[in-house]
Design brief:
The structure holds two protein chains of two kinds.
Chain A (H helix, E strand, L loop, with lengths): L11 H24 L7 H15 L25 H15 L1 H5 L6 H9 L2 H6 L5 E4 L15 E5 L2 E12 L6 E7 L9 E7 L5 E6 L10 E12 L3 E2 L11 H35 L15 H28 L5 H25 L1 H5 L5 H7 L10 H13 L8
Parallel strand pairs in A: 1-4
Antiparallel strand pairs in A: 2-3, 3-7, 4-5, 5-8, 6-7
Chain B lengths: L22 H14 L1 H5 L19 E2 L35 H28 L4 H9 L20 H14 L1 H20 L2 H12 L6 E4 L15 E5 L2 E12 L6 E8 L2 E8 L5 E5 L10 E11 L4 E2 L5 H35 L1 E2 L2 E2 L4 H29 L5 H26 L1 H4 L5 H8 L12
Classes of the chains: A alpha+beta, B alpha+beta.
Chain lengths: ~400, ~450
């Protein structure tokens, strides 16, 4: 044991691989699908096949939404840098390429993360090879995910689902959707369960796709469920309504996905920093790390501030992943990482647009796109404010009733 | 003598030279002079206020009169000294300190909590650390932490990480006292890192012995937009040695120091020089600042100070000096992390106890989010600092990492100081609570160069 904050060599190959894919596969089509919103990026099918190949060969430790299962790992007290660290570092590289395209990777949806994290072994087996998206948000609520009004009523061996879901990433392209619904609204959070609904199930309908500020390569669907019947085995986790345990089961997914979204923000912001550094260099501005910032140009001083904040977000994210790999509870650190990375992502990408003047603002470069893409990362999977709320409650030891 | 002896208002009292006085201004300035005169006191018109006596006051430069020892020359001139080995630095990403580091942190944390914190307020007011506290810091081995075992110290390998953890733990007690107690060890560490055999044999026995000298790392200068890498203090070759001229600022415990490491430009390159306080041409002036006051900050003036050729510490091409600047910035980052942690630990129970509008203020998001952001930015500061420290200890290039750590610690550290006071409102502004001191101390991170290193 010794303090060391370098990503270990054994992860280097995977990171380099992801970087090459990002550079050679995603970047060339980045602008294309930003303009052609809702068009399916067919190039990703080849990529998906490649990722499957890598996973089978064991060369990849979760290039995408591996999810986090904390069981079955032998605890021999040595420090591990495992699948969580591999996930955040490789996702970050992919998002250096393109966030929207990364979110559109077949079979790497957030629904897959949820399944990998909370499904039982039988469910896991059944959903193997399937692309799963996640349907939580409804028109009447966003952050307040306990307010789910979509209902699931047991009728014989089937649940009957009714309700409307919005902001379903890859909702049109995926093979199935993980839907959050309540068994009994009067029982509150504890009655909220997630269900796997296969595409083509009668009563499930993709109504429309959203037009967005950024991540346009990723489709975002509105899906309605009208007397949609699914086998009762499709309920993930326990069907029992445990008021004591409350929301914990469903929320466990978020503990695992927050560092991943933080990693996305880091990757996107790094793309901006890398390009801006070079453009500034061409304009005669070199960043000097020893010289006091105020003795350099204002642009260099600004860049130093952005890079320092970015590094803070990056290390907080690695910390959260390291804790998960070593089976330490990381809910606080995961929220810290997402809060910091979310706001840093916006600050970095927007500031880089300004540093590069009209080149930054123009569609001739990708800087303006990154500053649109990054904004969603401070919103989905828990907004900046929700993360601050979680951190504040933990630090202050206050309940959600005390600190609303 | 006219009451208005100088018609130009600028150039003093913080008034820029571009200011001019209008007739009302002249009247007010005159009244002010009158108010300051003894006349009023003689007539008993003014309430007598008690004179605050500082240990260190702005009284003009004085020759160092402190009895300083003669360091007996020893060792081989020009022969390289013993060097601590670098740490392996090849393990996994890990935030767990080694067992030795953890023991050290526990020990220093206890010292910080039980000895340092209770002494902080008075030391801040007096601009001096209590003698007993300084003695106790020697007993726990602070000065020899960075000195290699071969030279009588305790470090088996490069101790930048351990030093960082110790500085953080001490600063949680008090930043000013942390600097006062770490300053001698910083000089010893520097000699361990860059000293020749002769320099190590001559000076280090004093630090590993019973009577540890006060010592100071003098890099800062009283210059606007100061560039530490281009000091105005000069070293000029003269005969077998060098002649130093210039003024250094924010020199910790300069009035007690028996040995200085002084930064000066030699042939256009920044170089470190070992200067004993008994050397002719040195004078010292008290230079209390807004914060870090317990460290007894002073200005050191060097007027035609002659030092021998062997006084050069490390390389003359600027590389040793740059390394020294980076390690010093690292130490200040660690100090910022410790003090910011003190702020968080203090405001957390306060906002839960303090009530407004019928409930604890912690129940309001505007208050709670401020606390959350302190926690988030503090941890980011810590991680950046640790990364730079671990790289330094492993002998890897850490110039970029320490620059980023310093940038973040200066900016967020100051914000945390600001928010610490804000969360206590008016109570934060008065000395009944320590947050106003932390506000002043945390402003230092962006300004400090030298003084301590790890």
């Amino acid at each position: 044991m010794a303090i060391n904050l370098e990503v270990p060599k054994k992860h280097r190959a995977l990171i380099d691989q992801a970087h090459q894919v990002a550079m050679n596969m995603l970047r060339p089509i980045s602008r294309k699908y930003d303009i052609a919103e809702h068009e399916y990026p067919k190039e990703l099918d080849i990529l998906a096949a490649m990722i499957d190949g890598l996973e089978e060969s064991g060369a990849s430790e979760g290039a995408g939404a591996a999810g986090v299962r904390r069981d079955g790992i032998a605890d021999d007290k040595t420090v591990k840098n495992g699948s969580n660290m591999a996930s955040v570092t490789s996702i970050s590289e992919m998002c250096w390429g393109d966030v929207g395209l990364m979110l559109s990777f077949p079979r790497q949806g957030l629904g897959n993360s949820a399944i990998a994290s909370v499904a039982n072994d039988e469910q896991l087996e059944r959903s193997k090879g399937k692309w799963a998206s996640m349907a939580i948000t409804e028109p009447a609520f966003g952050s307040d995910s306990a307010a789910v009004s979509t209902t699931a009523v047991l009728d014989g061996d089937e649940y009957v689902i009714n309700g409307e879901k919005i902001f379903v990433t890859s909702g049109e392209r995926s093979d199935c959707v993980v839907v959050w619904a309540t068994l009994d609204k009067s029982l509150g959070r504890a009655a909220i369960k997630s269900f796997v609904v296969e595409k083509g199930t009668p009563g499930m309908n993709v109504e429309r796709l959203e037009e967005k500020l950024g991540i346009r390569a990723s489709d975002t669907a509105v899906i309605t469920f009208t007397d949609c019947r699914v086998p009762k085995e499709n309920l993930m986790g326990s069907p029992e309504v445990n008021v004591e345990q409350g929301f914990a089961g469903a929320m466990a997914t978020f503990d695992n996905t927050r560092p991943l979204v933080a990693a996305m923000a880091i990757g996107c912001a790094q793309a901006s920093l890398d390009l801006t550094r070079e453009l500034l260099q061409q304009a005669g501005v070199e960043i000097d790390y020893d010289k006091p910032a105020y003795l350099q140009s204002a642009a260099a001083a600004k860049f130093l501030q952005l890079e320092a904040d970015w590094e803070g977000a990056r290390l907080l994210t690695l910390q959260a992943a390291w804790m998960a790999d070593n089976r330490k509870p990381n809910s606080l650190e995961a929220s810290m990482a997402k809060a910091k990375a979310g706001r840093v992502g916006s600050d970095v990408t927007l500031s880089c647009v300004e540093l590069c003047s009209s080149i930054g603002y123009s569609e001739s470069e990708l800087l303006e796109k990154w500053s649109r893409d990054s904004k969603i990362l401070d919103i989905f999977e828990g907004t900046q404010q929700i993360q601050q709320l979680i951190v504040a409650r933990r630090i202050l030891g206050l309940s959600s009733a005390e600190l609303k | 003598m006219s009451l208005i002896s100088n018609l130009k208002p600028g150039g003093k009292h913080g008034v820029p030279n571009s200011e001019s006085r209008d007739p009302i201004g002249f009247l007010v300035a005159g009244l002010n002079r009158l108010a300051q005169s003894d006349l009023i006191d003689k007539m008993g018109l003014r309430k007598q206020t008690e004179q605050v006596v500082f240990n260190v006051t702005r009284t003009g430069f004085k020759t160092i009169t402190n009895a300083s020892r003669t360091f007996a020359r020893s060792g081989k001139t020009g022969a390289p000294g013993a060097r601590p080995a670098f740490t392996a630095g090849t393990g996994p990403f890990d935030l767990t300190p080694t067992e030795d580091e953890q023991m050290l942190v526990d020990l220093v944390s206890e010292f910080a909590e039980e000895v340092v914190r209770p002494a902080a307020s008075e030391a801040d007011a007096r601009c001096a650390a209590p003698d007993e506290l300084l003695k106790a810091s020697l007993e726990i081995g602070l000065p020899i932490l960075g000195v290699p075992e071969a030279l009588g110290g305790v470090s088996e390998e490069r101790s930048a990480m351990a030093g960082t953890l110790v500085a953080e733990a001490l600063s949680k007690g008090d930043m000013g006292l942390a600097v006062a107690t770490l300053a001698p060890g910083s000089v010893a560490t520097a000699i361990g890192l860059w000293g020749t055999d002769e320099q190590q044999q001559t000076y280090l026995p004093a630090f590993t012995g019973d009577e540890v000298p006060a010592a100071a790392l003098a890099l800062n200068e009283p210059t606007v937009l100061f560039d530490v890498l281009a000091p105005a203090t000069t070293a000029v070759k003269s005969g077998d040695g060098y002649v130093l001229n210039g003024t250094k600022s924010l020199v910790a415990r300069g009035d007690q120091a028996e040995l200085f490491v002084v930064g000066a430009s030699l042939d256009g390159k920044p170089v470190l020089f070992l200067v004993e306080s008994s050397t002719e041409g040195l004078s010292i002036e008290g230079d209390p600042a807004m914060g870090v006051r317990a460290a007894s900050m002073t200005k050191l003036e060097l007027k035609d100070v002659k030092v021998p050729a062997e006084a050069v510490l490390g390389a003359t091409d600027g590389t040793t000096y740059a390394e020294c600047v980076r390690l010093s910035r690292l130490a200040w980052c660690a100090l910022a992390v410790g003090t910011a942690q003190a702020v968080l630990d203090y405001v957390t129970p306060y906002v839960k106890e303090r009530e407004a509008f019928g409930e604890p203020i912690a129940h309001r998001q505007s208050v709670a989010f401020m606390v959350a952001n302190i926690a988030i930015e503090l941890q980011a500061m810590r991680l950046l600092t640790y990364r730079a420290a671990a790289r330094a200890a492993a002998g890897k290039d850490f110039s970029k990492q320490v620059a980023l750590a310093r940038r973040l610690c200066a900016e967020k550290g100051m914000q945390i100081g600001l928010d610490g006071v804000q969360l206590l409102g008016g109570h934060g502004y008065v000395k009944e609570h320590p947050v106003e001191r932390w506000y002043r101390d945390l402003r230092a991170i962006g300004i400090m160069e030298g003084t301590v290193l790890v």
